Every structure is written in C-alpha cells, then in structure tokens.
Amino acid sequence: MKIGLTFSETRYENYPKWIKGDNEEIEIVELHWEKHDLDEVWDAVEDCDGIVLSGGVDIHPSFYENTRLSFPNGDGKFNEARDEFEMHVFETAMNFGHPVLAICRGLQLVNVALGGSLIQDLEEAGKKNHRRINDVDDEHTIAIEDHSLLKEIIGSNTGTINGAHHQAIDKLSDELIATAFSPDGVIESVEFKNKQDEPWMLAVQWHPERMKDKDVNPLSNTIRTKFLEAIQNKSN
Q: In terms of residue numbers, what domain contains 213?
C-alpha cells in the first residue's frame, strides 16, 4: 500500500509514524512542492493508493479571493507554491478516486480548493483560542452530526480533540457538509455532500497524528483504521 503524504514544514515526522503504525507493508510517498513539478503530480498521485494532506502554514488569501495579507496570529509568511501544488494533488486524487484524509491545513485547503473561504483569525472573529501555546496543543470537545461519515467511523456524537490553528472555515464549499463543531461553533470536520459520486474523503481540523491519547482515542486511531480500510476496499 502506497500513501502519498504532502510535506509539511512543521512536525512532519509525526505523520508517517502515525500512518504506518506497525504495518511494514505501508509505504509513505512524500509529495513535496520542491521535489515535484506540477506536471509530475499526475504520475506521482496515480502511483499512490491514498492521499494525506498535512498541516502547516496559512494558505495565501488570494486563493480564497481575499486581499488582506496581515492579520492577528499570522506571521505574514505564505507558501503559494505549496498551496498550488497541494490543490493539484487533491484534484488529481479526486480524478483517480483515491481516498483522502485531510488534516488541519489540509481541511482548509480542501474547502478553498472547492470554492470556500477562511476565517483569517478565530480570536479576532470572537472565537476562543484554538492555537498551540508553549508547545502544547489546545484541547476541547466536539459535537458530531448524525448520519455523517465521522459518526459512522467513531460511533459517537461527542469526543475530545486537540487543536493547533488560528484559522478555520468561513464560507463552506457548496460541495461539502460540516459534520463536527467545537463548543464555540468552529467547523471541525467536513465531508463530501454527495458521497455516492465522490471518493472517500474526510477532512478534520485537529491533529490525529499527534494527539496525546492517539492510541486509544477513536478520533485518532479509528480514523486511521477506517482510512486504511477505504484504501483496501478501493483496491479490491
């Protein structure tokens, strides 16, 4: 099994360790904007069985038609090459019907790629802090919608997650539905609205790959299991 993983400048090492677990048959294929030209994405993604979109730097506002480049808790640093590369990876994965798991920035990228927009800073917008402070992730509960893929995966309407983000979904893409919310109303998970015509895709705002209880929390370990099962089911 080959899983394409987009490279992140922050804590990248957590992702392959979590995805692989004890399964030596899983091969991680690093998808890096500096190592693959855009015209190489098609072949690189085709060679994979599933895709993970990782976390990282804020998406450049131009991709969601916003001209404001300076906002609270943003460092003013963007990576447009990464943005464009990963949107191409996501689009190509959809073309091949690959299962996709999108994490933190990955959720935001999926929403933007499909025509949605972002809240540029949650606290500025009146929400609570969701950021990582002093190298410790935020932690809070979520409410999960009935009849959602996420509810089907974990078997519960509630759970506790970590957080390390200051942005979130504002306008939700018309192709997506929100399936989990924090107590202050931030969208924490999205899925395709029309699942019959689209590949398996789950996008979460938290970091399942580094939750402190990732071995027992279904919002980490069961998500990983069901993502791998989706890949196996597609291959069969």
A: 2-235
Give the number of domains in the chain: 1
Total Cβ atoms within 10 A of residue 49? 20
Q: Which two tokens stand for residue 97?
A: 């019907």
119: Cα separation from own chain's centroid: 16
Catalytic residue among 36, 88, 165, 207: 207
Query: Any bridge partners for residue 53, and if so which?
Result: 102
Are 104 and 208 in contact by the 8 Å Cβ rule? The answer is no
User: How many whole angstroms separate alpha carbon 58 and alpha carbon 104?
Assistant: 10
Annotated active-site residue in 36, 98, 104, 130: 104
Using CA atoms, how far apart are residues 27 and 48, in angstroms rounded to an integer?
9
140 is catalytic: no
pLDDT band at 29 (very low <50, low <70, confident <90, very high): very high
CATH number of 203's domain: 3.40.50.880
Active site residue 13: no
Please state the pTM of the whole predicted model: 0.97
Does the pLDDT value for residue 125 go beyond 80?
A: yes
CA distance 60 to 78: 6
High-pLDDT (> 70) share of the chain, %: 100
Q: Is 104 a catalytic residue?
A: yes
Write down the catalytic residue from 86, 188, 191, 209. Answer: 209
Q: Tell me the three state secondary structure of residue 63.
A: helix
Instruction: Quote the tokens at residue 58.
Output: 């804020």
Where does the pLDDT of residue 18 fall: very low under 50, low under 70, confident under 90, or very high at 90 and above?
A: very high
Q: Assess contact for 67 and 22: CB atoms under 8 A.
A: no
Task: Quote the tokens at residue 56.
Answer: 């990282």
